[in-house]
Amino acid sequence: MTVGDILDLLSVCDRNTPVRLAVNPFFPMAHRLGGVEKAVDEHGRPMVYIAESPEAEQFGPLPPAVAVALTWQPPAEGPSRRRRGATGPNTSQ
What we know:
Largest sheet: 4 strands, antiparallel
Shape: elongated
Structural class: alpha+beta
Strand content: 25-35%
Distance between the termini: 71 Å
């Protein structure tokens, strides 16, 4: 992914919408962004790094729909439920 790809994806979003960083597909969590840093890699190619907040603030698990959209988890359906009988005193005697 390039900076242009990110800009294209973000250009359709409201500029006031908070941004979270989704990390770790095996235990998907949301983190606050802390900054963007330009650098070069070991081959001298320009790179951009998006950093986690210095406070390492974690907002908890990703919403399941986000993990599915990122293909980190398959779509899942809840278990089927049977209708249960009424509870209360047995008055059939």
